[in-house]
TrEMBL record:
Residues 1121-1140 have a biased composition (Low complexity). Residues 1-70, 1055-1082, 1121-1144 are annotated as: Disordered. Belongs to the SCC3 family. One of its GO terms (biological process) is chromosome segregation. This is Cohesin subunit SA.
Length: 1219
């Protein structure tokens, strides 16, 4: 029997081994590798048999794993049998048991190797090792033979072959214990050996060993729990039989039976004690350490299995000593482990009989469970809500605050979370439902048992203060409360019927909420998919779901076809209620009107809609009426003619009334009163709303509206709303005519008319861009952008070449006006928005609405850029606002940049650099040419350039041409304007090179040299020698082009890099380079950067460069007529500190510019090895050049080149003198 507190394992690690312990290793064994407490009944090293009994002869010699051998080779290993999973596990285990009965050492050796192989180890435990080695030594040997190159092992390997391995592995262990539960597991040998092996492996540093053995140990524990449970049941039965026999009278009592029952109970108690000792050994030796393992999968296995133990054998395990592990692990950092905790607890809370034992745990960890409903892992949040739903079975455990934290999740965008919260809400609020008497007729209407539940739903919806999210509430409750939500008859009764005696009537606000909920339930039943924002795409419906959908549509049509007209009549003056009610016919099965003989109700509905159109001027109500007519005017159904006649009569009256009122209104001119204007506006609103969904081209609305708009331009006193709706109505006229032309049903004259109307209307909108009223200008701008996009060159694509005459490209003046509008009305501060007046500046809703409107205006213009309707360069004025208005429009501007780059990378790059140039010019006009480069304005431009650079991504090949063009334009801009200080001063825009250097890291190495050569075309010789602060942008930019270049592009003349600028302390090797020819000099030499530290100077003879030659992209050299100066080392030591500024600045920038590259490559050719220098020299053709590297004892290293060398002497004041 295994003692409970101690672990009967010989798998200990001696002090002289290399094995490393995990952080949570149990050091219960002594250093000699033996358990501090011997296991019961163990003799020698392993069990009762001596080493001499472990031979391969005897009866068991011909069988391994229960399979016969041929010529000493086994047919199939136990691991292979389980891996294939083809054989019934029962027969596999029976074969092993048979082998164990013949020779238990051989069978146990096979079982040990089985666990080793299941861990993915290629090593094999031999009989010699099994007999003579300590268990810790065996594990160390297997660890050494483990293939550590691959992190995969059977439990983690992907593929169909290994998918079922875990299931087969666990099944094998369970069946093994079940088949051995009556004898073998009590022989004090097999289970002791297996438990010792698994305990030792579970403490290994090798993840595969630890993972596999923990899973095996936990499944072994689960199997033992089942055995213990059976023993407990048998003991109870035996005890009852014993008590029953003992309570008999003496004459009828069978003493032999009593002794037999007493003996049986004693045996069962001994077996129970032994099983408990095994379970204690596994729990303390494996679980206690591995439930906090560093690997989440291992922790999850432990928590999953302890949940099974507590559920199976609650008498032994369902107590605080075991529950605490689950409670602690609910704080695990991995969602997978937290999920296992919740699922384990669900199995416990599901059984109401166990709730009493969970009271202490619930009170201790309830707050944690409630907080997990907001877990970042949605799966965990769902299971936490479901667990709380089960906790509701316990009376008064959850406080109202706890419930409210779950209630609001019904509005979650994640549908599984919302549905789980809906189930919680339904159980909490709707569980108290009145039971219906059997055989009694079903109560309907206000008598329905759902009346109070529907009212409760309305009350909850109003109290949540998220009135616009009724669709989300309905979707959350749909799966658990569909029957309640589809009780439309009850809802109609609550709205139309008078309340019963003693019943409180619904308030106006409650009726509005009920109508909105009713509409959402109708939509959910008809469409059978969640609202926008929940779910991804439409799933395929099953046949049952389709039948339910058809039945629901039929039932709702039959109900609302009758009830809708009286509902509209009752709430005709309430715009919000009418708007929702008018949407119901969109979900009707219109065939029911004919098959159900409901034509009179259709007539009643059409009359009510007509009255609503005549009563209301609200845009939403009118659009709902228009959509209802559109839904009913379906040519597929027989009711079409009836509805079409009613619609035509209504429109005839509206158009005639509008023309009559408009004529009188225009004739009156300035004498028109407000009533006349209101009549024109209300009629125009109705016509515009209907024109959105219906083709009214037969009424010639363009002429009357254009006349109205033209009058408004001439007089300038047209009411704002009349102009806005007139623009919108004319826009619909253009679009409906275009739709006819696209279908090919229009004549040539109609095309010509449409072309004239479209161009005239665009000119009219352009004129209204200068209107004094902001709302009018915004409407004109939006319509103009839509028309330019629709009638752009892309309208002829897709086989619509016949629309070519309609293509319209905006003139430059129109493009300029559109851009000016954006700059003046979009890129403004929130407080400057003239729309947020009337004391509503502090109203957050008004500010959000204003921002939304400005975003729509910007998006409309950006679409013109993306589709090449306006020139891409106009986007520069948009892009330059990226940083300043990042919070408001950053996403729109970034997407525009991305789309333009996909269209034309080079033009996009030119636009980006143009935006930076515009900002630079604006800064110059504000600060003057003597600005400070540390100013916030200049730093802001540099930061914007850095952001632009990041948008190019990491693929330099794709953006190569664009980046090169960007540098070209930037260089040209920097040298475009002469110096305001006269000759010898820096160019006016030279500081722009500092901004341009932000893009140097995006250049490919070979392109940096080309750009550097292009830069030198704009430089004079004196520029290369300047070192004042005003020339730092040029120095910084040149250094950014040299850093990271290939070695063969680094010139010997410049020889200066960020690494070369530092003082060298290592001794340089002298080397010599000689080559012939001068053809490669112009290709490889670069302009020397005049820094205070010494550098290598090329003495190759070249003609002096006197000015810029556009035909030559070379460098400027020192005149060869100069005499040879001499430089003294001590001069360098006396230099003032400020002379180091250029070097420090350059070193700092070279690091920052490379932040997007994988690694800055800065090579100093003078520190290269001789072989590296030989490779470099292969690309250079010098006549004869010897380079001697001499190290001085001062703080710097000086290089002197001996040929026709020229040496410069640096004075202590930092200037250069030539001799």
């Amino acid at each position: 029997m295994i003692a409970a507190p101690e672990l009967p394992s010989e798998f200990a690690f001696t002090q002289d081994t290399d094995t490393r312990f995990s952080s949570d290793t149990d050091f219960s064994e002594d250093p000699d590798g033996r358990s501090t407490t011997s296991a019961k009944g163990k003799g020698g090293k392993k069990g009762k048999r001596g080493a001499g009994e472990k031979g391969k002869g005897g009866k068991g010699a011909g069988r391994i794993n229960g399979h016969h051998q041929e010529n000493g080779m086994e047919n199939m290993m136990l691991f292979e049998v389980v891996k294939l999973g083809r054989s019934a596990m029962q027969s596999v285990v029976d074969d092993w048991i048979e082998s164990y009965k013949h020779d238990r050492d051989v069978a146990l050796l096979d079982l040990i190797n089985f666990f080793i192989q299941c861990s993915g180890c290629k090593g094999v435990v031999s009989g010699e090792m099994f007999r003579n080695m300590q268990n810790s030594e065996i594990i160390r040997r297997m660890t050494e033979e483990f293939d550590e190159d691959s992190g995969d092992y059977p439990l983690t390997i992907a593929g169909p072959q290994w998918k079922k391995f875990k299931t087969s592995f666990c099944e094998f262990i369970a069946v093994l214990v079940r088949q051995c539960q009556y004898s073998i597991i009590y022989d004090e040998y097999m289970m002791d050996t297996v438990i010792s092996l698994l305990t030792g492996l579970s403490d290994s540093q090798v993840r595969a060993f630890r993972h596999t053995s923990t899973l095996a140990a936990m499944k072994l524990m689960t199997a033992l729990v089942n055995v213990a449970l059976n023993l407990s049941i048998n003991m109870d039965n035996t005890q009852r039989q014993y008590e029953a026999e003992r309570n008999k009278i003496v004459a009828k009592r069978a003493n032999d039976r009593l002794e037999l029952l007493l003996q049986k109970r004693k045996e069962l108690q001994e077996n129970q004690d032994e099983i408990e000792n095994m379970m204690n050994a596994i729990f303390k030796g494996v679980f206690v350490h591995r439930y906090r393992d560093s690997i989440a999968e291992i922790r999850a296995i432990c928590i999953e299995e302890i949940g099974v133990w507590m559920k199976l054998y609650s008498d032994a395990f369902l107590n605080d000593s075991y529950l605490k592990y689950v409670g602690w692990t609910m704080h695990d950092k991995q969602g997978e482990v937290r999920l296992k905790c919740l699922t384990a607890l669900q199995g416990l809370y599901y059984n109401r009989e166990l709730n009493a034992r969970l009271e202490l745990f619930t009170s201790r960890f309830k707050d944690r469970i409630v907080s997990m409903t907001l877990d970042k892992e949605y799966d965990v949040a769902v299971q936490a809500i479901r667990l709380l739903t089960l906790v509701l079975n316990t009376d008064e455990v959850l406080t109202p605050e706890d419930c409210e934290s779950v209630y609001h999740l019904v509005y979650s965008a994640h549908r599984p979370v919302a549905i789980a919260a809906g189930e919680f809400l339904f159980k909490k609020l709707f569980s108290q439902r009145e039971p219906e008497e059997e055989g009694a007729p079903k109560r309907r209407g206000r008598q329905s048992p759902n009346v109070n539940l529907i009212k409760t739903t309305v009350f909850f919806f109003l109290e949540s203060e998220l009135h616009e999210h009724a669709a989300y509430l309905v979707d959350s409750l749909w799966e658990c409360g569909a029957e309640l939500l589809k009780d439309w008859e009850c809802m109609i009764s609550l709205l139309l019927d008078d309340p019963l005696p003693g019943e409180e009537a619904l308030t106006d606000r409650q009726e509005t909420a009920l109508i909105e909920i009713m509409l959402c339930t109708v939509r959910q039943a008809a469409e059978c998919h969640p609202p926008v924002g929940r779910g991804s795409g439409k799933r395929v419906m099953t046949a049952k779901e389709k039948k339910t959908q058809l039945d629901d549509r039929t039932r709702m049509t039959e109900l609302f076809a009758v009830a809708l007209p009286p509902l509209l009549a009752k709430y005709a003056v309430d715009a919000e209620k009418v708007t929702n009610l008018l949407q119901l016919p969109q979900f009707f099965d219109l065939e029911i009107y004919t098959t159900g003989r409901l034509e009179k109700h259709l007539e009643s509905l059409l009359r009510q809609i007509r009255e609503i159109v005549e009563k209301h001027t609200d845009t939403e109500v009118l659009e709902s009426c228009s959509k209802t007519y559109y839904a009913l005017c379906n040519e597929e159904f027989t009711i079409f003619n009836r509805v079409d006649i009613a619609r035509s009569q209504l429109l005839d009256e509206l158009v005639d009334k509008f023309n009559r009122l408009l004529e009188d209104f225009l004739q009156e001119g300035e004498d028109a009163d407000e009533d006349d204007a209101y009549q024109v506006l209300s009629t125009l609103k109705r016509i515009t709303a209907f024109h959105n969904a219906h083709d009214l081209s037969g009424w010639d609305l363009f002429t009357s509206n254009f006349k109205l708009l033209n009058t408004g331009i001439e007089n300038g006193d047209m009411p704002e709303q009349i102009v806005i709706h007139s623009l919108q109505c004319t826009h619909y006229v253009i679009l409906w005519n275009l739709a006819k032309s696209s279908e090919g049903s229009s004549k040539k004259d109609d095309m010509v008319t449409l072309r004239k109307q479209m161009r005239a209307f665009c000119m009219m909108c352009q004129r209204y861009l200068t209107n004094v009223n902001t709302a009018v200008k915004e409407q004109a701008f939006t319509i103009l952008c839509d028309l330019l996009l629709i009638f752009s060159h892309q309208m002829v694509s897709g086989g619509r070449e016949h629309l070519e005459p309609l293509v319209y490209s905006p003139e430059d003046s129109l493009q300029s006006e559109l851009l000016s509008f954006i700059l003046n009305h979009v890129f403004i501060d929130q407080d400057d928005d003239i729309n947020s007046t009337d004391g509503q500046q502090d109203d957050e809703a008004v500010k959000i609405e204003a921002l939304h409107k400005r975003r729509n205006l910007l998006a409309a213009y950006c679409k013109l850029i993306i589709y090449c309707v306006v020139e891409m360069k106009t986007g520069a004025d948009i892009f330059k606002q990226y940083m300043r208005y990042y919070n408001d429009y950053g996403d729109i501007i970034k997407e525009t940049m991305s789309k333009t780059r996909q269209i034309d990378k080079i033009q996009c790059a030119k636009t980006l650099i143009l935006s930076l140039q515009q900002l630079f010019n604006e800064m110059l006009s504000e600060l003057g040419h003597g600005f400070d480069r540390s100013s916030s304005a200049f730093c802001g431009i540099k930061e914007l350039a850095r952001r632009f650079s990041l948008t190019f991504g990491l693929d330099q090949v794709k953006t190569r041409d664009a980046i090169a063009m960007l540098h070209k334009d930037g260089i040209e801009f920097a040298f475009k304007e002469p110096s305001p200080q006269g000759e010898g001063g820096p160019p006016l825009h030279l500081a722009f090179l500092d901004i341009l250097s932000e893009f140097s890291s995006k250049l490919m190495r070979q392109d940096k040299r080309t750009v550097h050569m292009y830069l030198e075309r704009f430089m004079t010789f004196q520029m290369a020698l300047q070192r004042e602060d005003c020339w730092l942008p040029l120095i910084s930019y040149r250094n950014s082009l040299q850093a990271g270049g290939d070695d063969d592009t680094m010139s010997v003349m410049s020889g200066y890099s960020s690494r070369g600028s530092s003082i060298r302390s290592k001794k340089a090797k002298p080397s010599s380079i000689s080559s012939a020819g001068t053809s490669a000099v112009k290709r490889n030499l670069q302009t020397p950067v005049m820094m205070p530290s010494p550098h290598l100077t090329s003495t190759a003879m070249r003609d002096p460069k006197r000015g810029r030659d556009d035909s030559y992209m070379g460098v400027y050299a020192l005149p060869h007529e100069q005499p040879q100066p001499h430089q003294h080392p001590q001069h360098h030591q006396q230099m003032p500190q400020h002379h180091q500024t250029p070097m420090e600045y350059k070193s700092r920038r070279s690091t920052g510019l490379m932040e997007e590259d994988e690694e800055p490559i800065v090579e100093d050719v003078m520190m290269s090895s001789e072989g590296r220098m030989d490779d470099l020299n292969e690309g250079m053709d010098f006549d004869t050049m010897d380079i001697d590297l001499v190290r001085y004892t001062c703080a710097s290293v000086y290089f002197m080149i001996c040929l026709d060398f020229q040496i410069m002497r640096r004075q202590t004041d930092g200037t250069l003198m030539y001799y």
